[in-house]
Amino acid sequence: MTLPAPDLSGSIDMSHGGGGRAMARLIRDIFLRHLANPLLDQGHDATRIDAGSGRIAVTTDAHVISPLFFPGGDIGSLAVHGTLNDLAMAGARPLALTAAFIIEEGFPLADLDRIAASMGRACREAGVPVATGDTKVVERGKGDGVFITTSGVGVVPEGVDIGPRRLRAGQAILLSGPIGDHGIAILSKRQGLEFGTEIRSDSAALHRMVADMVAAVPGIAVLRDPTRGGLSATLNELAGAAGLGMQLDERAIPVRPEVASACELLGLDPLNVANEGKLVCICEGEDAETLLAVMRAHVEGRDAARIGHVTVGPAGFVCMTTAIGGQRVVDWLSGEQLPRIC
Amino acid sequence: MTLPAPDLSGSIDMSHGGGGRAMARLIRDIFLRHLANPLLDQGHDATRIDAGSGRIAVTTDAHVISPLFFPGGDIGSLAVHGTLNDLAMAGARPLALTAAFIIEEGFPLADLDRIAASMGRACREAGVPVATGDTKVVERGKGDGVFITTSGVGVVPEGVDIGPRRLRAGQAILLSGPIGDHGIAILSKRQGLEFGTEIRSDSAALHRMVADMVAAVPGIAVLRDPTRGGLSATLNELAGAAGLGMQLDERAIPVRPEVASACELLGLDPLNVANEGKLVCICEGEDAETLLAVMRAHVEGRDAARIGHVTVGPAGFVCMTTAIGGQRVVDWLSGEQLPRIC
Amino acid sequence: MKYVDEFRDRDLARTLAAAIAVAADPARDYNFMEFCGGHTHAIFRYGVHDLVPANVRFVHGPGCPVCILPARRLDDAIELAERHGVILCSYGDMLRVPGTGRRSLLKAKADGADIRMVYSTLDALDIARANPGREVVFLGIGFETTTPPSAAAIAQAQAEGIANFSVFCNHVLTPPAIRHILEVPEIDPAQAARLDGFLGPSHVSAVIGSRPYEFLAARYAKPVVIAGFEPLDVMQSVLMLIRQVNEGRVEVENQYTRVVTRDGNRKAQDLVARIFELRPSFEWRGLGSVPDSALAIRADYAAFDAEKRFALSEKQSRETKSCECPAILRGVKKPKDCKLFGKACTPETPMGACMVSSEGACAAYWTYRRLETLAEMAAE
Amino acid sequence: MKYVDEFRDRDLARTLAAAIAVAADPARDYNFMEFCGGHTHAIFRYGVHDLVPANVRFVHGPGCPVCILPARRLDDAIELAERHGVILCSYGDMLRVPGTGRRSLLKAKADGADIRMVYSTLDALDIARANPGREVVFLGIGFETTTPPSAAAIAQAQAEGIANFSVFCNHVLTPPAIRHILEVPEIDPAQAARLDGFLGPSHVSAVIGSRPYEFLAARYAKPVVIAGFEPLDVMQSVLMLIRQVNEGRVEVENQYTRVVTRDGNRKAQDLVARIFELRPSFEWRGLGSVPDSALAIRADYAAFDAEKRFALSEKQSRETKSCECPAILRGVKKPKDCKLFGKACTPETPMGACMVSSEGACAAYWTYRRLETLAEMAAE
Amino acid sequence: MCLAIPALVTELHDGAMASVSVGGIAKQISVALLDAVAVGDYVLLHVGYALHRVSEEEARRTLAMMAEAGLLQAEVAEMAQTTGLAGGAS
Amino acid sequence: MCLAIPALVTELHDGAMASVSVGGIAKQISVALLDAVAVGDYVLLHVGYALHRVSEEEARRTLAMMAEAGLLQAEVAEMAQTTGLAGGAS
Ligand code: SF4
Ligand code: SF4
Ligand SMILES: [Mg+2]
Ligand SMILES: [Mg+2]
Ligand SMILES: [Mg+2]
Ligand SMILES: [Mg+2]
Ligand SMILES: [Mg+2]
Ligand SMILES: [Mg+2]
Ligand SMILES: [Mg+2]
Ligand SMILES: [Mg+2]
Ligand SMILES: [Mg+2]
Ligand SMILES: [Mg+2]
């Protein structure tokens, strides 16, 4: 599909969201150009997908990140990766995505184009199409550049049954790589917190690695991507849902030195910082090495590590042996993560 | 599931979107309370659905309406209806919805509760669950109360094949009822345009009526809901996609007297005004009466009418015999619909 | 809707069409100028063309206050919002009109200017009351119909002491514009001779009455019918014009008797006279500088005059090149004569005001009749 | 990370733990007050408890500038943002602290106040430069460590003539607070006797040196070790205190020699002395009114003093009822002694500042050690 | 130009304001530009202001003339006189 | 209290500003509170300002003392003298 390059010198105005021709042109010139695929080309508000038989998985995430462009990605690639990963965390093979855009009046077309191009690239690399989309424009001061909500549908292979009910004491807790890269990459671009050093977001699609993991060990108990709220939120949520405890070893949890430094500087705990290309896998202890090997064979899991295990109790608590050998509770993040001076 | 009534006296702040416990509590107290269902209760970011076999349909729409509450509905019911209808327009039986919320700092919890309650009601009435969701909070001045993106998945019955490729000259164009109610209901609540008279949005779920229509006439060529951009946008899009023409009869198109009056007052063309509970059905001429009868048996299609037919040409043009018997082109809305004085 | 639906009746339209067909002499042409965009809109939206013989032709006049506002005045309005930081209140009609460099109020708004659409000057006053710390400027456009509401707003602001409210006045007058078309030879020497009569502005006459058009019959020997804006009003008025022509009468007739009288609304006229005074001349897109054709706010009310309150810079304002709006507004060209029509210029990318105003001739041809227009263009 | 990672080494921690175990006399208790929240944080985050014998106890002091700021001052800050419409710049630490009626700066922001988190006074100055039409107030909190950056900002604003910048000064001093704990009998007569020594503030001493703590040894016969904030620093300092106690020495020792000297940073001290002067007394949450314990901006710099620029109203400010923060800040109660702990009061719904500041004792017990704490509470 | 529409006055308020019904739509408008407006009057509404009264009788006459458009020659002349217009030259 | 962290000065700028590396993170800070800061110095960074120099030698000594914590009695006294502190009463 080769359309002539459109004029991208202007900016979005309300007419781009009015439902008329200006919007149709915007969709053709930007979204269809970058996201073209046979499903989207059906030209329907709702798109048919051949799921074959089997169980399907659906997911949705609204992406509201600021800044929109950051080292290692942008809101477009992030929106694709985030939703692919949520499908993968259900053990599902992603079939298709949908994407809904809420764009602020005055947003530069060139930036939108760049974002859509990045989404298209991420989709092609992942081998998963955007099947349908939607575009709304809001008045200046009623949005923040662009928000993208992506939803996803996938098929769950036979025999895969992933969820917190499957947690048992003694299971191993694996982490696919160093934590905190995404959250620190974003913070490093926020006004007043800028770093000169580039810390890249880990934003990445994990479904291929997960497919291999599920193929190697169909009985994986839990997969979860520690995004907003970081590793601490993910593990606390799981411990709470399962009514079990967890015991971590701080020294086993990989954190890049620059990320650790940034956390020291801002008074943050890396355990609370968001990731966008990492997963937590909980499995029987005897499967841990197999799964670590599978993960390490993928670039996304190169630094995978076993970071702890599930315990009978204290129920709902995540505990950790600290660097110096003491004990602490690993709590949820309280409220928003704020840099601090004390 | 009976949870104690939560405290709804406060308002949203950034911590509600931080990924920590405050957010978990918000989800439990408001979203789970109103939207609880076995799928959502899986507690996963991605939810499994048993689709059986067959083709599935997916859709997404971002809802950014202002005001959030309007006669005949609110953003919550609208978000449910809009997405159910998009699935129905593919001839699909809706299986599940997802809902992603972008909430502005300072938004009253009580309003959010009211919206979630309305979504829950709409879902129960429709018999379709919200399978998974997501919540983001943006700073004051970077949102507009709340935006809701709903996506949907459905199954397309065997033998149903709906799409603009199926259009043929001679087919009948049916409309399920009077147009313009939704757009005028919204405008009537905008600052400076208030009417004293209550015009109610037509917001409604059409999938049950569509299921009956598809059962009665599996060979329906096209179904489409004339939402943003109104009937004119829908028909122009179809005519353009099919490379055919359309001929309408202005006097056959139902418009409520109050809606017609409001359009006169504001200088709007009812053909350009949004609907949220109407559909256009294009079918073989011989099936028209059958389908009209099916529609009229539903409250949503009580005033269904045959409003025109597909023509060979002029390709891509929608023409109309006017009230006085002249001819005109029915064009897309240009840009945003603005009230005018001239 | 009373007084509306009855005047869109298909049976009555057929009766009138038959009468017009009988009355129109096939041996000659009838070229009637509808001064008003409102008539243009009604003719196209209802397909009145299709109900009159081909030799009865409509010539579209300059009666669209949006279309005739030159780029300079729009650029000034944008400057008020952007440089002076005022809340600029405008009727919806003006928002998409391109100024210099095709920049519109809507684009200025997207770029951050505080531009608000209002339905009435009453709303602009409300905005001024609600924002005492901000300057609120109402962009006053329109003919004699729309001028009294601007006058009323200024009177109200004075009575209440609303000190942050002012009007950027662009109100214009219809009779001088019509006279200009007929009188100024450099506009088009053949034009005056070609026109067989006028459909007179009805809502303007609701305020000023029909008397101000009597000069047309008296001095220029052109039949006039003050014509309502519903399609049957237009058809009946056409019938009345044809009969005047056929009978050699030259009169100001009034088809729109349910609203228009000879004297109009004296109270509104007095209020306008109290607040406004004639400008010596005003620039009209298409017509150029027309003497005594527009209003300015009197010195007594200078406090409410945005032109006096804010220093507006000198500008190199320019209309879009090769846009034929000017000739179309004078009635000497049709949209099909513009090579941009339907190509570079569409309602989404308007090059001229005639394409963006719903009352503009280009917009009407595009929206309601572009099939025929594009076919004619291809044929030529 | 150099000078950080080495001081978190597990093997060295074991060595120190062994030495402490050997040194600590099992026949007695060691009650050491860590004045600083920074120490509290390090002890809990690294589980230093688990590496010292049970008879070595940490008593948490009032060294958290967030915790000791009374509701009244926070209410004043909210008033500056809401009633005076200033841009209020604050370190992230203050945003969630509840004032009267549990209203925080974050809630005021959600309700529309313009409150901005800054990382440095440098950023607050940038905001003032970027918003010349707005008043920008920096909420100055902190001990001697954080005071020089506020002083530097005021000096810079004066040098540059940044007229819209001011500081709402809540800077407080550590030595008077420690003296107050030991001296004022109505606070708790038994307290002074119970304490066996102090872990002295290390970053405060980076600025003021160790000399200002010599009175503790000299006048109150309490051993002091100026202790770094890394967990090994704390452990080594504990060992040094135990040895002083065991040997009957009463000295000011300096564990944190890599940064602290006896004299501190004279340049910073001079700048602080130029801009600020002692307040006769200041209200501390927990300690009440403490003489000579806080700084105010000198009259020479009144233009940069938010308390002088803006009229702050009289208020009925109130701390949350039955919050035990005051007693906890004096070291006479522990979080488990508060019946709200973990029930009504959690970090998401903090009833007192000790729960919201990361340096607060309640937050530390909740975040890192609530298992044990809740168990103890259940047992009692 | 000048979108205007007939409105039925349903209530009069202070400050020369009135409630009107525009084909069933209730709206607040200004009647400051008209004298002696009464409930039950139809007025021509433009940008929130009543510009002129609408005459029921004249509307009826106009419709009647349309219905008899073929026979109308005589009546046109009559109408012109009645309304005091048609002061043409010729 | 008072979150502060060691930073390596990598570049000096006008206006008493400096570039530092905080464990590999580049950051602009103020050195207005210190005299004669040089590239290669480690400083203690707090809320964007360098508060004090960090002494490499003292850090090494401290770590060495920790490693020999069991044997340290004598050295503590020595350390106190070296730094001119320990002016205790007793
Ligand atoms: S078509 Fe466009 S460019 Fe041409 S005359 Fe009309 S408005 Fe001007
Ligand atoms: S637990 Fe909460 S209420 Fe109790 S003392 Fe601590 S901060 Fe105050
Ligand atoms: Mg859709
Ligand atoms: Mg996600
Ligand atoms: Mg859509
Ligand atoms: Mg914004
Ligand atoms: Mg996830
Ligand atoms: Mg999700
Ligand atoms: Mg839709
Ligand atoms: Mg989510
Ligand atoms: Mg807003
Ligand atoms: Mg649709």
Q: Could you state the oligomeric state of the chains shown? A: heterohexamer
Measured by DSSP, the beta-strand proportion of chain E falls in: 25-35%
**Anisotropy-based shape of chain E:** elongated
CATH topology of the largest domain in chain A: Phosphoribosyl-aminoimidazole Synthetase, Chain A, domain 2
What low-confidence regions of chain A span 5 or more consecutive residues with pLDDT below 50?
none
* Strand residue percentage of chain A: 15-25%
Organism (chains A, B): Nitrospirillum iridis
Family (chains A, B): Belongs to the HypE family.
Protein name (chains A, B): Hydrogenase expression/formation protein HypE
InterPro entries (chains A, B): HypE, PurM-like_C_dom, PurM-like_C_sf, PurM-like_N, PurM-like_N_sf
Structure notes:
The complex is a heterohexamer, with 2 copies of chain A (342 residues), 2 copies of chain C (380 residues) and 2 copies of chain E (90 residues). Chain A is built from 8 helices and 14 strands. Chain A has helices at residues 21-35, 75-89, 109-126, 181-187, 207-216, 230-242, 257-266, 288-296; strands at 46-50, 55-63, 69-70, 73-74, 93-104, 130-138, 146-156, 172-175, 222-224, 245-249, 280-283, 305-311, 318-321, 327-329. A 7-stranded mixed beta sheet of chain A has the order 9-11-8-12-10-13-14. Chain A has a 4-stranded mixed beta sheet with strand order 2-7-5-6. Chain A has a two-stranded antiparallel sheet with strand order 3-4. In chain A, strand 5 (93-104), helix 3 (109-126) and strand 6 form a beta-alpha-beta unit. In chain A, helix 1 runs parallel beside helix 3 (109-126) and helix 5 (207-216) packs antiparallel against helix 8. Chain A starts with 20 loop residues before the first helix and ends in a 13-residue tail after the last strand. By secondary structure, chain C is an alpha/beta fold. Chain C folds into 3 domains: 5-62 and 179-254, Rossmann fold, CATH 3.40.50; 67-173 and 264-309, HypD, alpha/beta domain 2 (Rossmann fold, 3-Layer(aba) Sandwich); 325-379, no CATH class. In chain C, strands 2-1-7-8-9 form a 5-stranded parallel beta sheet. In chain C, strand 5, helix 7 and strand 6 (165-171) form a beta-alpha-beta unit. The longest helix of chain C is centred in the C-terminal third of the chain and has 19 residues, at 361-379. Chain E is α+β, with helices and mostly antiparallel strands. The chains are: A alpha+beta (342), C alpha/beta (380), E alpha+beta (90). At the B-E interface, helix 7 of B face strand 2 and strand 3 of E. Bound molecules: iron/sulfur cluster (SF4) (2 copies) and magnesium ion (10 copies).
